[in-house]
Prior knowledge:
Two copies of one chain form a homodimer.
Chain A: E1 4-8, H1 14-23, E2 27-31, H2 35-43, E3 47-48, H3 52-57, E4 61-64, H4 69-77, H5 82-85, E5 91-94, H6 100-111, E6 116-119, E7 122-123, H7 125-131, E8 134-139, H8 142-152, E9 156-163, H9 167-195, H10 200-208, H11 215-226, H12 235-251, H13 257-271, H14 282-287
Parallel strand pairs in A: 1-2, 1-4, 2-3, 4-5, 5-6, 8-9
Antiparallel strand pairs in A: 7-8
Helix pairs in contact in A: 1-7, 4-6, 9-11, 9-12, 9-13, 10-11, 12-13
Amino acid sequence: MTERVGFIGLGVMGRPMAQNLIRAGYRMHVCARRPESLEPLVAQGAVACASPAELAAGCDVVCTMVTAGADVEAVVMGKAGIMAGARPGLVVIDHSTIPPATARRVAQTLAARGVDFLDAPVSGGGQGAIDATLSIMVGGHEPVFARAEPLLRRMGKTVLRIGDSGAGQVAKAANQLAIVLALVGLAEAFTLARASGVDPARVLEALRGGAAASRVLEAMGPKMADRDFRPGVEARLHHKDVQIALDCAAAVGLAAPGAAVAAQTFNALMARGGARHDSSAVLTVVEAMRRPQASGSSA
Amino acid sequence: MTERVGFIGLGVMGRPMAQNLIRAGYRMHVCARRPESLEPLVAQGAVACASPAELAAGCDVVCTMVTAGADVEAVVMGKAGIMAGARPGLVVIDHSTIPPATARRVAQTLAARGVDFLDAPVSGGGQGAIDATLSIMVGGHEPVFARAEPLLRRMGKTVLRIGDSGAGQVAKAANQLAIVLALVGLAEAFTLARASGVDPARVLEALRGGAAASRVLEAMGPKMADRDFRPGVEARLHHKDVQIALDCAAAVGLAAPGAAVAAQTFNALMARGGARHDSSAVLTVVEAMRRPQASGSSA
Lengths: 299, 299
């Protein structure tokens, strides 16, 4: 518990994850582009560092929670990046959702410097991060996982080594593929109900009680029933993730027509300006594929 | 509780539903094409009737749980059907999943004879029927629902009047649309994992712990991970249901590309001879859209 841990990426997910590590007694080091991201953590005793390189130089483990593959590569291999400050024996744990191929490339680059890497994307959303109930899907060498596991268990409830480097990201791609298809299903379901003159709130209640019950329904169904698209999970993130899943499928020679429909639905949502709306706003894309209503229609 | 109740359609769902009504003290009348379907219920005290007409003549409420719209129309309006024996004041409750338009037509036909009708499709599967934890989605007049509700609550935990005649079937179509899209998402997710050399059983465990957790995952995920397609829910039923959802969407002028992909996936499963396999066998359709593997491949 006296390990020195660095955390880079202190957003909706990263901040509560880092706070759970502080609470667990880890000596936290943080670094962020925006000073206001650092403040709550420094107030809890974290050490602010000027760059990922400086942070890495003073830590035994560095966690990253940024957005896309390019962000991870910049933070690790860019100017004043983690690699510039890392000593052999450092463990880098990336919690971002990025392509498995990028994770493998970063792992190989770090391995050449004697630095260990785990891809460790998470599922469970902001609330799961706060409650430390995330599902954490890990790819990498077993001994490195064993060393990191106690730390990961301070942030997640389901902590699983899926396989070698990249396997965590494959599991996350599968996870996101399941979620976005479920979302498209709900968007079409609620629009069908509304277009048929049926109260979506009643349909939500019915779905909750039967075989359609799901965490996606609990999180997104009320937003769809109320047409309230404040995030939540920003649609741009699922847009990125479904593209990762499609790219993975193409890489292994798999057709995925369901994922393709979901990707196009999210493309349409981006085109409509919905990037920072909640992901449940895919409802509006489905609604736009509906016969115009006569004025004064009940639906 | 002294009401005389008839039950027609004593399969995987109907039998346990009727048995729950017997346990609750209703005087049960049954009728089936195959004598072996009657036996367990007669052994519990149910009265066997020769036809739906004879059954209806001796009952205050008749429940039906058959397969498709044509089956409901035959049982209600066919030769020696319910209508042939019904007296004014009878309540017919159909638990089958059929098109809303068919439910409305049956309701209108019965109303002309003074017979009340509720569409009351259910969700929750065979186990939900046994445990009386079904979600029951009801369409029809409020006073008729109020009269039927105590009986419905002996078979289901979530019993909701969704709206007027047909509204229960609209909710069920929405429910099934959500389920089949979730199924396609899981089929693509597990195939992506396998094709990437990742153990689907580990992926299943990770998905269960995060935002992808769902009742569909619990019921179908293990079958997909193990490639064990014994039913469960026979694929021909979801095949029928997704077509109902597509027809409903067309009727209200709604494009539903997600439902279309699911429908095509189930069409392909029917074409492959999977009608009576578990619905999770849609996995095999996705697997067939994958690059052939070199012999001895790990995946």
